[in-house]
Amino acid sequence: MNTNPTNRRHFQLSLLALPWALSAPVAQAHGDTHGKAAAPVVKEQKPWGIAGDAKAVKRTVDIRMTDDMKLSPNHLDVRQGETLRLRALNQGKVMHEIVLGTGADLQAHADMMKKHPGMEHDEPYMAHVPPGQRGDIVWTFNRAGDFEFACLIAGHFEAGMRGTIRVKP
Question: The domain 50-168 belongs to what CATH superfamily?
Answer without folding.
Answer: Cupredoxins -  blue copper proteins (2.60.40.420)
